[in-house]
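Researcher: Next sequence.
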Amino acid sequence: MRTFATLALFMLLLGCAQTPSVKEESKDEPVKKYALHGEVLRLEPKDKIAAIKHEAIGDWMGPMTMEFPVKDQSEFDKLRTGEKINATVTVQGPRYWIGEIQEDTTPAPASK
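Model: Next structure:
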């Protein structure tokens, strides 16, 4: 039993040593930027997260509702629930966040 426990611990440590952290993985990844157009549905100030119902984001993602981290506090402070926004999504490996946030002041199309 002791040999099994030692072997299991060794394998666990070996696996951890070979697995780079997300930070290490993404520092060499290229940075991509995409335009985002959407509506702010919910804000989580503690974690600076904005839930946004958005249109397709370039070739990165289809239209959906998802949570986006906002790195900069002053950018997060610009957001209001129910507001339509334009922003830039920055993607680096598995990490992503929004910035360059502006209210979308484009008038809604007229109904027929």
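Model: The domain at 19-103 is CATH 2.40.50.320 (OB fold (Dihydrolipoamide Acetyltransferase, E2P)). The longest strand covers residues 31-44.
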